Each structure stands twice: as C-alpha cells, then as structure tokens.
Amino acid sequence: MKSPLAPGVRFLTSFSRDSWYRGSILLLTFLFYTSYHLSRKPISIVKSQLHRNCSELIPPAGLNISDNETWCDWVPFDQSNYKTLFGILDNCFLVAYAIGMFFSGIFGERLPLRYYLSFGMLMSGLFTCLFGLGYYWEIHSLLFYAFIQVMNGLMQTTGWPAVVACVGNWFGKGKRGFIMGVWNSHTSVGNILGSLIAGVYVSSAWGMSFIVPGLIIAATGVICFFFLVEKPEDVNCSPPQHNLRSNEGMINGSVTTESAEVIEEHAEAISFVGALCIPGVVEFSLCLLFAKLVSYTFLYWLPLYISNVVHFDAKDAGDLSTLFDVGGIVGGILAGLVSDYTGGRATTCCVMLLFAAPMLFLYNYIGHRSLGTTIGMLLLCGGLVNGPYALITTAVSADLGTHESLRGNSRALSTVTAIIDGTGSIGAALGPLFAGLISPSGWNNVFYMLISADILACLFLSRLVFKEVQGWCRSCVPQSRGFREF
Q1: Can you give the residue ranges of the Major facilitator superfamily (MFS) profile domain (predicted)?
Q2: CATH number for the domain including 214?
C-alpha cells in the first residue's frame, strides 16, 4: 500500500509552477523596494542627533567648550538655521528624485529591468554608505552631504517604475488592489526597519545609521541580479490578463494568434505625451502630488516633531514615529480591498483624504497629551494619509499602465508609473521644504499646510469620483426597474 504524502509536501505541490514564480516575484520585489525605503529613512532619525540641546548634556572631561549650547552638535548643523539646512538636504534628495523619476520610466521601458534595478540598488548603497562615512572622516561640509543626497536621489529613481512594471508583467487586474495593497506595505516596512536600524546607532555613532542600510540595499541588488525574472514568457509561464481585449484572446492560459498580433503591433514603448493622454493619468498624478507632500513631510519631519513637542530623545522619537508607518500598512491594504470591491479607485482615495484632514488637526492639538493618545492618533493618521498614496502608486498606476486604450501594450507601465510617481515626488520635495521654512513660526502652521494639501488632493479627483458615482447609479437603475416589474 502506497503511503500518503506528508501534509507539508501536499501543500507545496498544490501550487502550480506559475503560482510559485508569481509568488517569488512578489517576494523579491517586496524585498527590493523595502531596501530602497530602508536606506532613505536614516536621515530623518539622525537629524535630532546632529542638532541637540547641548546645555542639558554633560561634556566629556577635558573638552574645551566655547559654546555651552552647541558643543555637542555636528558642524555645520550647530547654528540657529539648522532647520533650513536640514530642509536643504531633504530637498537635494527629493528634487533630484522628482526630476530623475520622469526619465527613469523612459529608461525602464528600454533597458532590462534586472540590470536596471541591480545597478540602482548597488549605487544607492554606495552613496548611502558615503553619507555615513562622513562621520568617521569628520567631514563638516554641507556641500559634501548635499552632493551625496543629490546622487542618492537620482539612483533611487531606478526602483519604483521598475518594480511596478515587473509586478504588472506578472499580475492581471483581478484583485489587483488587494494584492498590491499588501505588496505595497514594503514602503512602510522599509521605513520601520530603517528607523529601527538607524535608532540602534544614532546616539553612539550616527555614521553606522547610514552604513548598515547602505550595505543592505547593495546586498539586495546582488540578489536581484541573480534571481529576478522580468516576464512570465522568459520562463514559459502564462502571461496575465490585463484587459477585456486581451482576455478575449486567452484560451486555457495561452494567447491566440489574433491577440498576439495586437500585442506585437503595439509592442513599442509609449511616448511621454502618449502616456499623459491615457484617461486618468493627469488627475491621479496631481492628486498624488499633494498626497505625497503630506506623506513625505511626516517621513522626514515626524521624528523631529515628536522630539520637540513630546520631548523624547532621538531613539525614542524614531521608534515612536514607526507607528505612522504601521498605520500606513493597514491603510494601504484596506484601500486596496475597498477599491477592488467597489471598483472605485478615485472614490476610495477621496474619502480617505477627506477623513485625513480633520484627523491631522486633532493629532496636532491632542495627539501629545498622553502616550496612548499619541499611539492611537499616529496609527489612524498613518492609515488615512498613506492609504490613498499606496493605492495610487500601485494598483492605479498598474491599471492605467495596462489601460484598454493601449490595446494590449503593457510596455507603458514603467512610463505611466514614472509620470505619476514623478509628479508626486514634486510634492514630496515641496512638503519637507515648506516644513523647514514654516516650522520656525510654529508647528501649527505646518499642520495647516498639510490639511490644505489633503483638501487639494481631493479636488483633483472630483471629476473621476463623479464618473464612478455615475457608473454605480447606472448599474443600479436596471436592477431596481426589474424588481418593480416583478
């Protein structure tokens, strides 16, 4: 008598070859972009170490102190304009990222994604490490750190268009919002890990807060080179069903001659102007500009805000700030689930943004009254702020990049993703810049700016929300008529 297979073996063999490849692609791209965000986070943690209230600290024995207020600060951030200098560093990265993103999608459509991602991660690891080495080399030049930020910003643009294009190559539209909502938690996971890793070293040797994340992203670049599979066709797996036109050409997992001819006919990479003409690209891009302005202001300034307002030290402020990203994970998954169920990507984003505005107001006024209130408000604000941001940069970008107007040409994915995220990155650059300029006049004014940005993001989606609501009303009318006739 043949003995039955072990339960674990039965479970493993229940998945098809295609499922294993698709699962591995999700896992690898999740790992890759987690490392991208992990390497961005240290600077927000280290800020509160570069400029501290030195009068509350005991100087080492034998140290000749000329200024009791700044002896422990890192030059050139020891002056009263330190917030402006931090804003300069943030914007060197973010402006370079925003400009580079528009070109990155064009390169991503034309270069092998495996080489492109591997190169980007290795170079990003190099520049992240160089920033940390400034501590050991005792470099006190703002120009050095600004140059490193610019180069790192350019290298980081290789990530997002490439990973979204890769995932879009493997997955169709069915349950895309939920799958990408879970997958997009890599952003928050990377922020959390980056905060925790940087927090370990920030008080003792802040240079290691950059060097360790730099080595991690470089290592993932090596993994990418050896293991990433760009397209299902490369390993004889069945391609995904992107839209109705391609679905009609799919029979038992194979592509018919007619649909293959359509795809072949439109296999050329789409132009920048052509991608802008896809319905919804402009609206979602402008919405993301303001949504990302809010998200990245929190990313770069929340630890310093907590340190200043709640009076936590650098490590505790960094650890507490990770709760915003934990909320972002839940918000991204919920946004994907709701938009899959309702079919309303724009409406889901708009509702979450509308709720985010009053929650930001409440967090600023009551969020620091107790530790429990701070934790609860950070989780809630993180979910409402990052939910729409996550949905637009993943499921919406993938939907638009495989829009039915493209007639099966999925090579638009990288360009569309770059346009949407590139426009959003303009907001990501402006948010921390404005925060640095406005915060000396009071944190209240920074929050008023963030609330205004949320409202503007909603306004840019109003036309698409109206169309979605119209569609729901039309679909309900025939059903109600049929019920009355019965």
Answers
A1: 28-469
A2: 1.20.1250.20
